[in-house]
Amino acid sequence: MRVTVLNGVNLNILGRRDPSLYGGLTIAELEGRIYEWARELGLMVNCRQSNDEGEFIHWIHDAYDNADGLVINPGAWTHYAWSIRDALEPLAIPIIEVHLSNVDEREEWRRMSVLADIVASRIIGKGPDGYREALEYLKEKE
Ligand code: DQA
Question: What is the pTM of this model?
Answer without folding.
Answer: 0.97
